Amino acid sequence: MSDDQLKPETRALRTGIHRSQFNEHSEALFLTSSFVFDSAAQAAARFSGEESGNIYSRFTNPTVTALEERLAAMEGAETCVATSTGMSAILACIMGLLSAGDHVVASQSLFGATVNLFNNILKKFNVQTTFVSATDLNAWEAAVQPNTKLFFLETPSNPLTEISDIAGLASIARKSGVWLAVDNCFCTPILQKPIELGADIVIHSATKYLDGQGRVLGGAVLGSRELMMEGGVFSFLRTAGPTLSAFNAWVILKGLETLKVRIDAHSRNALQMAQWLAAHPKIERVFYPGLQSHPQHALAMRQQSTGGGIVSFEVSGGREAAWRVIDNTRLVSITANLGDVKTTLTHPATTTHGRISQEARDVAGITDGLLRIAVGLEAVEDIQADLARGLS
């Protein structure tokens, strides 16, 4: 049976296995900085690309390759390039594919560090960005300029879980001659396949659900071989060096083995949590794609298979009330990470989006009363009781 015929949970366990001479069952961990050649001629052939094979773990390592092959199979991508973090995946995509003078159209509903990357770092290299509504297709089309090369978005967005129409944006991108890149961190390939919907590039922070237990950092860029390899993403990583370590790749490989069962459980718990929050008198609004009250609920249910594990909600009383909820918890983890088996809680306005301007937060709808909970695998009733203390 070919990989194309396997279901996602099977691909997460059986793709990318290359056993060594010891015929190990679990994937081998190759902790080595470099690889030995049989001769000077072979070394020259490896470095020139005439012969395939491992050279140096900054850009070739069997454990990292196994992760890349497995994740590519799960996303339905031709190839994958692993990176040291999710942010380095975004950076590699931009630096590998764009040039000074190019233009990007991006969602205004992005992770705070991503906004800062576009606004503060890439601008220094004369890559300009126009931010538009994540949900307004007309705004994306109107923002296209002659030098536009890339559409960039995350869906669902962080933290308000706005849903962008990937197929609709892919149609505009093709007509405009630009690439569409989708950050698939919240959904993972278990819930959403951007490439099947027309995206050219998929971005991951493997630190989140792909690892799933808050252990290591990692990232990935996926797409066609032309874009990933010949197009420049791999070339940038090989030279600049923000690549994934073999150990972190091995940990994430182990995480992928349980991704399907974890995502299913996260989604069930998150829906139950969202419904409970929506009925609470101290909560003004709940943001969760699985609720019918979500503005893009119908689109989410066509584009994703469930609502996912992230719920955001506005507490009556602004920042003081939101901080009271956080400070009265005894069980959940007060941390800005997400995608962990343990429930995490954060105040986006002062953490994940604290370094962007107040104006940018206002445009993105990130209020002082907003909290984001990444619902873990504990008993939902225990998490609800933990939050209830600060909401009483």
TrEMBL record:
It is an enzyme of class 2 (transferase). Pfam families: Cys_Met_Meta_PP. Signal peptide: none annotated. The keyword Transferase applies. One of its GO terms (cellular component) is cytoplasm. One of its GO terms (molecular function) is carbon-sulfur lyase activity. It catalyses: O-succinyl-L-homoserine + hydrogen sulfide = L-homocysteine + succinate. GO terms for biological process: 'de novo' L-methionine biosynthetic process; homocysteine biosynthetic process; transsulfuration. It comes from the Bacteria. Its cofactor is pyridoxal 5'-phosphate. Pathway: Amino-acid biosynthesis; L-methionine biosynthesis via de novo pathway; L-homocysteine from O-succinyl-L-homoserine: step 1/1. Keywords: Amino-acid biosynthesis, Methionine biosynthesis, Pyridoxal phosphate, Transferase. The modification N6-(pyridoxal phosphate)lysine is found at residue 208. Its EC number is 2.5.1.-. Belongs to the trans-sulfuration enzymes family. MetZ subfamily. Homotetramer. Catalyzes the formation of L-homocysteine from O-succinyl-L-homoserine (OSHS) and hydrogen sulfide. This is O-succinylhomoserine sulfhydrylase. It comes from Nitrosomonas marina. The lineage of its organism: Bacteria, Pseudomonadati, Pseudomonadota, Betaproteobacteria, Nitrosomonadales.
